[in-house]
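Q: What would this complex look like in 3D?
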Amino acid sequence: MLSADAVTKTFGSGAGRVIAVEHVTLQLRAGARLGLVGPSGSGKSTLAQIMALLLAPDDGVVSVDGTRVAVCGVRCDRELRHRVQLVWQSPRMAVDPRLRVGDAIVEPLAASGLLPAGRAERRALIAVWAARVGLTHDLVERFPHEVSEGQLQRACLARALIVNPRYLICDELSSMLDVSTQAALLEVIAAAQDERELGVMLITHDRTLASAWCEQTVDISDLTAGRDLEDVSDTPATARSGALGRQVCSRPQRSMQP
Amino acid sequence: MTALLDVDELSVGFRTRAGTVQALSRASVTVAPGELLLVVGESGSGKTVLAHSLLRLLPRNVDVSGSIRLGGEDVLALKPDALRRMRGRRMALIPQSPASSLNPVRKLGGQLLEAAQARGLTERDARRRLRELLAELGLDLDFISGRYVHQLSGGMQQRIVNAMALVGDPDIVIADEPTSGLDSDLVDTTATQPREISARGASLLVITHDLRLAQRLGGHLALLYASRIVEVGPTAAFFKAPAHPYGRELLRALPEREGKSIPGLSPELTALPDHCAFADRCPDRFDRCTEAVPDLYPAADGVLARCFAHVER
Amino acid sequence: MRVAAGVLGLLVVAALLANVIAPLDDTAVDLDRVLNGPSAAHLMGTDEVGRDLATRVLHGMRVSLTIAVLAALAAVAFGTLVGAVAGTMGGRVDTVVMRFTDVAASQNHLLFGILLVVLFRPALGGAGAVMLAIGLTHWPSLARIVRGELMSVRERPFISASVGGGASRWRLARRHYLPHLMPAVGLAFVLTVPHAIFHESAYSFLGLGLPAHQASLGNILNDGQRSLLAGGWWIALFPGLAILVAAMTIGTLAEYWREHLHPRWRSELEL
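A: Here is my prediction, written as structure tokens for the whole assembly.
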């Protein structure tokens, strides 16, 4: 189980202070499909980064399978980092433009010293993963700017899955993509879930998608202020102001820029 | 009814080192006054290029052929002065992601005023018109004027950009991907605003990949695939019974329907086949499909589809 | 571009082989041939003590280029270091470092440089002092550039993705930050070289740099100034031309290099 316990994150200071995430408690079980909805600016992306061990909360605790995570980011234990993976909304921003698509897919392995040394084996590994996400072999040789958003997002998904994570957080995975690509990505995720009990948190503003694909959907504004996890998937979608109404928006929130 | 906008056999190709990228192939659509037309397709299908072509907002390395007639006048043949007058006053564009089309370091009041004056309004008329427009959109000019873009929510930004497009009272408004970055609740209200509040009953052309939005908006729909229009008809008819296999498969991919993806990938625009572009992914493919490019054939009442399956009828 | 590369290549080769190809000894004083205009025997003429100007210019080119390149390297190295510290550590360190950079940047290049040359000349010799002076006056803009690039790269999701994949700080620096900095740093380096050439010439012209007998383009220009009234126009012209050509070719190459480095920039030019 991946859990966030009373997690709070504030950006900036003084008058420009923005409370992105306030006292949020959330659990993602292995093998589950959890949907997280909420209006833009409500802190979903910030929460995603905190739970993916990339951003340290100001308050509260993140635990992965019972282990309390003490430090985040580069200093965090590599094995823990591998257990939770994140897929971003914009694949173009999430891939180093200098890397070929195939190299981007295996980059986490290279970064962790797990990449096979031989060129042939590397090629084979890339080919396997490319096929798994529906990319043709000529596309992996290209640079990110030479492929479409949809194709690049498939590569990003492969990159996230290649380290065999136990938890996958998708932050607006497909909001910029067409339905068919969205369906393709979800099919890959579903297959990965069947294989290895992957816990998936789907962050989206599309409530129809959440209620169709996820077992359980939560609105982020219901998680704040220490309230317990509620199952609100039956609740009709009403406009919620989220944290936006409570915050003084005098500075842009860095992590929430599209 | 005479068409307000008549696009005939419009083809747009970009010359690049990798060859010519055929972004649009012989597209033909018409928009009647006051009508709502949705241009739907995935990214790279040619829909944004179509929108930009209408205003001639294309880079220099393009090959354009065909015609675009606005109220009888050929847009492609307009001289620079006439073109400038047309843009904003007869045809206006609401670009994608409002926040990035507004100047972040300038107060909004100044930007709105400048936009209005660029469309030929005097300062006094501009203020008056803006006040009216913003009020109809639920915003107060005084509240907005002294603020910067980032101080407002996404919904407000969208409405401001809507106002800028409408201030010149255009005959047709083009909205490019009004869904980007907005929540589904907000999109509904802001996407049709331009048409609803336009005093002159302006036509609205909405470019989008969001099928659900398309269904909610209604009107007519043109579906693009690999630079070609593959289906045209009333939106309601499309969602009930799509005539083109791509349309059918696309609807099947919706999570609330089957959530089944279309196998394979769209063809590269630099290497379009000289037969039906959807053939190799089409479950209903037959021999003729790989022999030639189909024309748009009548498939049902008011519906055209670029598919040989409809030729027999 | 090719022209620029070719010319620069020629200059560099000529400078490097100065000792080999120079037709005559550059200190050979020939009082019979004082202030002769360009001729078959002396392609660029002779100076006021009869030395062959062409030889002096060639040697001077070598000296000037060497000093300029080393000085630019010093500026770039120091600037990158400062910028990197500010960019990666952020917060207070960033503020303090950047204020320090601002102070350094506000100094007038030439005046401050003169001060430095004069101060360090006894310790480091003419050439060394000039290199140091140029280095210490040109690093601030580079520090700003490096800091800016670093701060923007750090925010990008692909850095986070790399971290999520298990990258260490070292790997991030080596595989992501450095390659992203290279275009800016490389460009800055190449653009500093012409500056350095001008500055070195200026210091030498003022008599502060290299000793007068040692040929550097600035020194020759200095001699040329004195000989102008006597009608020796060629003594000022040729070194001046050499400086100009060197600076221009380097600048052209810099543009070309920048376009070539980033794969994405490359394609944006196409479309």
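A: To summarize the key features: The interface with chain A takes residues 155-158, 160-169, 171-172, 175-176, 179-180, 262-264, 267-268 of chain C (CB under 8 Å). The mean pLDDT of chain C is 78.
Q: Very helpful, thank you.
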